[in-house]
Design a protein that fits this description.
heterodimer, A: 228 residues, alpha/beta, Rossmann fold, 6-stranded mixed beta sheet, globular, B: 302 residues, alpha+beta, 4-stranded antiparallel beta sheet, binds adenosine-5'-triphosphate, binds magnesium ion
Chain lengths: 228, 302
């Protein structure tokens, strides 16, 4: 599903945000990406959705080489990927419902169907009663859950989540992780960037650890364990 | 396709409403531009219609052949006096013409008297009603000329020429200011849209990141520009119409006995159409320009 081959990325000259990253992530896997703040987790996720282009190296996502993908194919690639951004990236001027279903709307899905799907995902994150609120009327944790709802509303083949539980209380965090597990069991590949060691330990999934832009540890694919 | 259009128009309407102050500015600019342009056209068209200044009264002379007989003279008189445009007509016989000449130029009296034949033709001196149009006059002239025994219809071409020149000047000024107005409204629309872009950059960025395609991001912006242009030019044309109404009441008050032909006319439909089209087009171009600058320069890859 995701393949990194000797990927380098930098924002400023001579300072590498990612250094020679290589790993494979199979379809249906659940992977945690961890590492200290500034280790390069967000950068790695940005490369996957082609928000950035790597300095060097190749990245394949869902069978496409994202560093050489033509510009007009990018929206399709991104629609196949659900992303929970670290800073949520909700549109302030749109309601929760509009935020969650915007892309569905551009795909021409009618209002009735959008309502149905929005209700379904908002219920899963416990926010069905906030459908018509605006993002700024929500708490940080609620906004985060809206971001989760938006990420899963279009049944993505790949779900990327950047600190998706950072603003949530422990119970809610567990609930969201259980939701991710459920989505994962339905076949979606999940990649979660997080600092939360406790969470990682409890979930018992594959863990990729970054440190100062380098991949220092990878517990390896857990697919066999998953299946038993 | 239809669904896409509905989407774009709806999103554009929402966005227009959300930043209404800014958009009002753009609408105002277009309105102003189209008002100025429309006023020039209106004035030009009306001046063209009334080529005779209503202070200058048109007079002309119909010169008759020497061998014209009485019945032919009566026929010509009938034609002239039968015309709606003629206010008064006076017959001047050959003899009378000679007398008048003698009165006007006493020094030449003897010279003229020495001639064995009266050199002056008989004529009708005709005054036209105020507000006669050039075209109407030309028609009348042709009819009179076609009468038997009419040698020439003499009139002062100068008056018409002066007016023609004036009209041409107005038109030129109209085109000049018009093109400046249109260009400046394209600029202002594109600037206003750039501002709305700026306020919505984050939103556009997010839309891109969650996979909205280009067309769905651009469409509403383009439609927004067109709507601004459309609204602005419609308002501008309405203002011109308002001005026209005011002018109409003013003219009616000033000259209650005025002929219908002097009544100001409004822009013909084709011009209304052209103005509205020009407004919408400048809206379209304005949003296209700002889209190019913004989507291409400021927002990362896509
Ligand atoms: N837009 C940017 N411009 C310049 N430097 C950047 C930019 N984004 C990230 N960096 C740098 O790249 C490095 C990796 O950043 P990144 O955001 O990937 O870290 P992270 O692992 O997500 O950290 P955190 O856990 O705090 O979110 C950091 O040193 C950061 O300062
Ligand atoms: Mg980060």
């Amino acid at each position: 599903m995701i393949h990194f081959y000797h990927v380098h990325q930098s924002y400023q000259r001579n300072i590498l945000a990612l250094k020679d990253i290589s790993f494979d992530c199979l379809r249906g896997e659940f992977v945690f990406l961890t590492g200290a703040s500034g280790a390069g987790k967000t950068t790695l996720l940005k490369l996957i959705i082609r928000e950035e282009i790597p300095l060097q190296g190749q990245i394949l996502v869902n069978g496409q080489n994202v560093s050489s993908i033509p510009v007009n194919k990018i929206p399709r690639l991104r629609r196949a990927i659900g992303v929970v951004f670290q800073d949520f990236k909700l549109i302030r001027g749109k309601t929760v419902f509009e935020n969650v279903t915007f892309v569905l709307k551009t795909l021409g899905i009618d209002l009735k169907e959008r309502r149905k799907r929005a209700y379904h995902v908002l219920k899963q994150v416990g926010l069905q009663h906030k459908t018509n609120a605006y993002p700024l009327e929500l708490s940080g944790g609620e906004q985060q859950r809206v971001a989760v709802a938006r990420a899963i509303v279009n049944d993505p083949v790949l779900l990327l989540a950047d600190e998706p539980t950072g603003n949530l209380d422990p119970d809610m965090a567990v609930e969201i992780m259980n939701l991710f597990s459920k989505i994962n069991r339905r076949g979606t590949t999940v990649l979660v960037a997080t600092h939360d060691r406790e969470m990682i330990r409890r979930m018992g999934k594959r863990v990729i650890t970054l440190d100062k832009g380098q991949l220092i540890h990878d517990t390896g694919s857990q697919m066999q364990i998953e299946e038993t | 396709m239809l669904r896409y259009l509905i989407f774009a128009v709806w999103e554009a309407a929402i966005s227009l409403w959300r930043s209404r102050v800014l958009n009002l500015l753009a609408v105002g600019t277009i309105m102003f531009a189209m008002f100025i342009l429309g006023s020039f056209v209106l004035v030009g068209i009306n001046l063209q219609k009334i080529t005779v200044n209503w202070r200058d009264q048109i007079q002309f002379n119909v010169f008759l052949a020497d061998d014209i007989d009485q019945s032919q003279i009566e026929a010509v008189r009938g034609t002239i006096e039968g015309s709606m445009l003629v206010k008064s007509a006076q017959f001047i016989s050959k003899h009378r013409a000679l007398e008048l000449f003698g009165q006007d130029f006493p020094t030449y009296q003897t010279t003229v008297n020495a001639l064995e034949k009266n050199p002056f033709p008989a004529s009708f001196q005709v005054s036209l009603i105020r507000g006669t149009e050039r075209a109407q006059f030309d028609e009348l002239r042709v009819v009179i000329l076609s009468r038997e025994g009419v040698e020439e219809v003499y009139y002062d071409e100068e008056i018409f020429k002066r007016l023609d020149f004036f009209i041409r000047l107005i038109r030129l000024a109209g085109w000049f200011f018009g093109s400046i107005m249109v260009t400046s409204s394209i600029f202002s629309i594109s600037n206003v849209l750039k501002l709305t872009f700026f306020t919505r950059r984050e939103e556009v960025d997010i839309m891109k990141l969650v996979g909205a395609s280009r067309a769905y991001i651009r469409g509403p912006f383009i439609v927004e520009g067109i709507l601004i242009g459309l609204l602005g030019s419609l308002l501008g044309v309405s203002l011109v119409y308002l001005g026209h109404l005011l002018l109409q009441t003013y003219v009616a008050d000033a000259e209650p006995f005025l002929m219908a032909s002097l009544e100001p006319v409004f822009l013909p439909m084709s011009w209304v159409f052209i103005l509205v089209l020009a407004g919408s087009l400048s809206g379209f171009l304005g949003s296209l320009f700002s889209l190019h600058q913004f989507l291409e320069e400021h927002i990362s890859y896509q």
